[in-house]
Design brief:
methylmalonyl-CoA epimerase activity, 3 helices, 141 residues
């Protein structure tokens, strides 16, 4: 199955400062900013576009239960995950399982932009958090 880079997620402590850096220093454009209190997310997210490439800035909203807060506590701020766009998420998940790669079933969800996503088990990816995603409602022009 074809895969392509979709975005990089970066865990941050100060969202406004990170947005400012990505806009003023890197020349990015703020596409969206929203808060998600969904279980397993609990973060404020800013989507930055830099010449067609997306970065998601992830700032925890709950320092007790947010996975981003846990990540920052364990590893510090910085790259949290790399996301790959696939043609069909359910098929990609099946292929992963056939290859012996586990997915974190409780992370399967659709975000506010219609992106379906799931995270692969970092124990099977050399410790890197990898997201697979698709956009089932995206129209092809």
């Amino acid at each position: 199955m074809k895969k392509q880079m979709d975005h990089i997620g970066i865990a941050v402590r100060q969202l406004d400062e990170s947005i400012q850096f990505h806009i003023e220093v890197l020349g990015g454009k703020l596409i969206d900013r929203y808060r998600s209190e969904a279980k397993g997310v609990e973060s404020e997210v800013a989507i930055i576009d830099i010449d067609g490439y997306r970065t998601e800035l992830l700032c925890p909203t709950n320092n007790t239960t947010s996975p981003i807060a846990r990540f920052i506590k364990q590893k510090g701020k910085g790259v949290h995950h790399i996301a790959y766009k696939v043609d069909n998420l359910p098929e990609a998940i099946q292929q992963l399982k056939e290859q012996g790669i586990r997915v974190l079933e409780d992370t399967l969800r659709t975000n506010k932009h219609g992106r379906r996503l799931i995270y692969l088990n970092p124990a099977d990816t050399e410790g890197t958090i990898i997201e697979y995603c698709d956009y089932p409602n995206e129209t092809v022009s």
